[in-house]
Amino acid sequence: MPGKINLQKLKQEETMKKLWIVLLSVALIMAFTMPVYAVDVKFSGSYVAQGYYENNRALVAQDGASLSNIWQRLRLQTDFQIQEGLKLTARADVMEKIWGASATLNPLPANNSNGNDIDSQNIKFEHLYVSANIFGGLLRVGYQAQSQFGTAFGDSGDNTYGPRIRYDYPVGKWTFIALWDKIEGTQYYSPAGPSGNLGNPAYQVDSNAEKYVGAFMYDWGKGNAGLLVYYYNLSNTSGPSATPDLGYKSKYWIFDPYVKAQMGPVYFEGEVVYITGTAKAFENGSPDVTRSGWEGYATATYDFAPMYAGITLVYVQGDDPNTTDKVESGAGGGTDFNPCLMLFNYDLGRWEGNMGSGAATAPMAGGIANAQLLQVFVGVKPVPKLDIKASWTYAQADQPGGTTPAQAAAWVSKNYGSELDVTATYKIYDNLSYMIGFAYLWAGDYWKGTNSANMIDNDYLVTHKLTLTF
Question: Is residue 129 within 8 Å of 145, Cβ to Cβ?
Fold first, then answer.
C-alpha cells in the first residue's frame, strides 16, 4: 500500500548504520593508536661501582687521615624511535651516591650533592631532547650534553648539560655544526617576569647566560680534525642600580681546534683552546677586566703489539694574581679528561674533595687547572681481554698558589709532585670490565703553601672499579 512504512527495512537500515559507526570508530582508534604501537623503545646505559682507599689526601705529615669509600651510579638512557628520522631521548642518573652516605650527615664537599639516600633526590633526569632529520641534517632540541668537542681534553659532557638547540649538516667528508646553549643554573623564573627582574625597577637587564657556537669537522678515514668557535654572552651577573654598582657583563670568544690521526703504528691527538674578550664590563664605569687564556694537550701512542708506549703533554694557563685588570687562565682541562688516578681525577675529587690542607689546597673535581703536566706511559695486552698499564706523571703549577700578589710572592714552590699509576683492566664479558689500580704520589713543595716550614708527606691510593655497559 502506498505510504505504508516498512518497519523491517528501517530496522535493517538502523542496524547497518550502527555497524558502520562501530567500524568507523574502530578504524579511527586504529589510526590514532598505530603510531603509538609503532614506537621502538631502546634502552642503553652503564652501571659503575668504584671503591677507593686513599692514605693521606691532606698530604700532611704525622699520620694524615685516610679515606675509604665506594660510589656507584646507574646511567639509563631511553630512546623512543617515533618513526624514521624522528626520536625522543631521555637520560637519568639513578642511585648516584656513596654507599651508606646520609643526606643529613654527609661530611663530603658541597659538590657531592648526589651522595644522599633520599629516593626523591636519587633519580636525576639530565637529558631530554628531540632528534629530527630535517633538510638533510640532524636537528636536536632540548636538554643535552654540553662542553663536548674533539678530544676528551677540555670536555665536561659527562656531567655538564643544559638547554641546547643544535643542527648538524654533513657534506661529504665535512660536517658543519651550529648551536645555541643556555647555560644551566643562570636563568630563573619569578611571577614578576621570566627573568625575575621585571618587578624590580632597580635591575638594569634580565638575567641571561648563553653561548652561540659554530663548528666544522673533516674526516679523512684515518683521522679527523675540526674547529669550534664559542661566543659567550653573560648578563646574569648584572646587578641592580645601587651605590656602589657592582654589576657587570661578560662577553668573550673561545677558539678550539683539534686533530686526531692514525699514522701507521702511531696514534696522535691534540687540542688547543684560546680565550679572548671581556671578563667583566662594569656597569658603573669602572675599568673593564679583560679575559684571555691558553691551554693545550697532545698525546702520541706507539703500538708494537702486544705492547704500547707513549707520551702526553698538558698545559693549562693559570691566572697571575699580580694583574688584577686581567683574567688570564685557561678554560680548564674538563672533567672528562682524567690522566691520573689521583692528580686532577674528577671522580676522586668529586667524592673525596680537595687535595692538600690549609691554604695549600687544590680542587680536583673541576679537571686540570693552572698546571703543566708531562706523562710517559707503557702498557701490555698479554691476552685480548687484559690491559696492564703503568704511567709516571710530573706536574707543576703554571702560576703560584694564592689569590693576592703577596701570597703568590711567598708561595714556596710550583711543584705539585710526581705520580706513579699502575692499572690492570680485564673484560669479564664484552660488556663487563673490572679494573684494579694503585697510585703513589710524591708530594711536591707546592702543598707547603707560603710556609717553607710546613711538613708534608706523600700519598697513595688503592682502587677497583666495576663497569657494566648495555
Answer: no
Quote the CA–CA distance of 261 and 311 in Å, as a whole number. 15
The per-residue pLDDT for range 177-198, each reduced to its tens digit, is 999 999 876 655 444 544 445 5
User: What pLDDT does residue 368 have?
Assistant: 92
Cα–Cα dist 340/429, whole Å: 26
Residues paired with 308 in a beta bridge: 303, 379
* One-letter identity of residue 106: N
Spell out the residues 6+ positions from residue 254 whose beta carbon is closer than 8 angstroms to its own: 228, 229, 230, 232, 273, 274, 275, 331
Which residues neighbour 427 within 8 Å (Cβ) at sequence distance 6 or greater? 385, 386, 433
DSSP state letters, 49-76: EEEEEES-TT-BTTTPPPEEEEEEEEEE
- Before 109, cis peptide (omega within 30)? no
Asked if 210 contacts 181 with a C-beta cutoff of 8 angstroms, the reply is yes
Contacts of 343 (CB under 8 A, 6+ apart): 355, 364, 373, 393, 395, 416, 417, 419, 441
Grid look-up 694524615 returns 64
